[in-house]
Each structure stands twice: as structure tokens, then as C-alpha cells.
Amino acid sequence: MILIKTEEEIKIMAEAGKRLALVVRALKAMVKEGVTTYEIDREAKRLIEESGCIPAFLNYRPSGADRPYPATICTSINSGVVHGLPSGYALKSGDLLKLDLGLIYEKFYSDMAITVPIGKTSKEDQELISVTRGALEKGIAAAQPGNTLGDIGYAIGSFVKKNGFHVVDGLTGHGIGRKLHEDPYVFNEGLPGEWDVLKPGMVLALEPMVCAGKPRVKQLEDDSFVTADGSMAAHFEHTIAITEKGHRILTQA
Ligand code: MG
């Protein structure tokens, strides 16, 4: 069931999103060659707690997972798509780092992801990043009351395809609110007009995950997802609310 949030609840979620966007901005500024993903994780925890919030991913246990997530953020590198675990790995020039993080503010969750190129990256990788960011923008533009989840999926998927890349298989966006993952699944592909109709008060995390090669992903022993063919992947995510007039991006400062 897709939960409808009240105006008051969306106000809280907008504050949560603003605080998250500020943390993401600060992390982006510290990301450079030589920095380890563990250092970024430690700083994320400090910043989230400093802003009066609780890290959403730390100790989070999605249904089906063997163990709770042991870090504050996900740091997926190059062929890593999502759920990459921070480590002693030092970022190097040419890497694509995907930062995915969430927080809890006043019992409500917010979720956001960005892809950051490290040092000198190839033209194709820059294109992959820009198409993935563009796909999120297309998805958000389609997130209007009266439109459907299929319209969002179609907007994202057709834009990615048109630009010669692929949406990865099997990973989706989601509803969000008092839980990190609520109904519905927000697919990154679809047909116009199919699935649920979008209504004011729905809050959704849209998150295109796009790769340069084949769309198949595999899950590693540490639970992270990587492209099966080793091709580069990018990921952007915003938490948004459907409003009477259109939509509101909550994860922005
Ligand atoms: Mg998410």
C-alpha cells in the first residue's frame, strides 16, 4: 500500500532532505584522490549526527539480508552499482565513486545518491554520469499528480536508452517515509500509463542506476551489486514528494 503523507509530514521530510543534501554537499567537497572511502564514511556519520539526525543505513537490515549494514554510507566504485561497503580503499584518478546515504530526522527517512568522478575520467564516463543525472531529471519531471509510476519509468528508461546506455536489471527506487523502503517499487523502466497513479502526498526515492555495458548485475559476498560484465556504472537519487501542482524535490538545500 502506498502511504500518503500529510502536509505536516512532508514539511518534516523536506527538513530531513535539506539536512541530507547539506551532508552530501560537504562529502562531495572532501572527495578526492587519496581519500579512503572509510574516511568519507566516518565524516558522513559525524556530519549526520552533528545535524541532529541519525544515520539511516547504519545497522539497517533490508528484508532478505543476512546481516545489518555496518556503515553509514554506501561507496560503490567503478563497476560497483550500489551497496558498496566503505573500506581502506584510497580513491584514484579515473574512479567513479557513487555515494549513497540516508538519514532519519524526527522519525522520517531521507535518501540521496550522487556519482562523483575522481581526477581525470574518460569522456565516456563523463557522458555516463551526465546521462544518469539527466535520467533522474526526466524521471522527476514525469512525477506529476495524475501521471503513473510507468510514466516515471518510461521517462528514465527511454532517456537512458536513447543515449546508448542501459538501466541495470533488478534494482529500483522506492517509496519512503517512516521506513526507508516503503511501497511502491519505482522502476527505472516502464510504459506510459501503466501501474499506480501518482497522488499528492506520495513520497518517492527516484534512483536511476545506469551502466555503460550490459544491464545484468551480480551480488558479491559483501552484498554489494556490481555490473556482471565489469562495465562502469553511475547512480543519482533524490527523495521527492508529489504535490497538488507537481512535485517537490526534498533532498535539496
Ligand atoms: Mg534509495
Explain what this protein looks like in three dimensions.
The chain is α+β, with helices and mostly antiparallel strands. The protein has one domain: Creatinase/methionine aminopeptidase superfamily (Creatine Amidinohydrolase, Alpha-Beta Complex). Helix content is 28%, strand content 25%. A five-stranded antiparallel β-sheet has the order 8-7-9-14-15. The longest helix has 24 residues. The chain is globular and about 45 Å long. The model has no long low-confidence stretch (mean pLDDT 97). Magnesium ion binds next to loops.
Helix content: 25-40%
The number of strands is 15
- Which of globular, elongated, flat, extended, rod-shaped describes the shape? globular
Which segments are poorly predicted (pLDDT under 50) over 5 or more consecutive residues? none
Bound molecules: magnesium ion
For the residues shown, what is the average pLDDT?
97
CATH C-level class is Alpha Beta
The fraction of residues assigned to DSSP E strands is: 25-35%
Termini separation: 30 Å
Count of helix runs: 4
Category by helix and strand content: alpha+beta
Could you say what the CATH topology is called?
Answer: Creatine Amidinohydrolase
Task: Tell me the number of structural domains.
Answer: 1
Largest sheet: 5 strands, antiparallel
Q: Could you spell the SSE succession in H and E letters?
A: HHEEEEEHHEEEEEEEEEE
Task: Give me the side-by-side strand order of the main sheet.
Answer: 8-7-9-14-15
- Annotated CATH homologous superfamily: Creatinase/methionine aminopeptidase superfamily
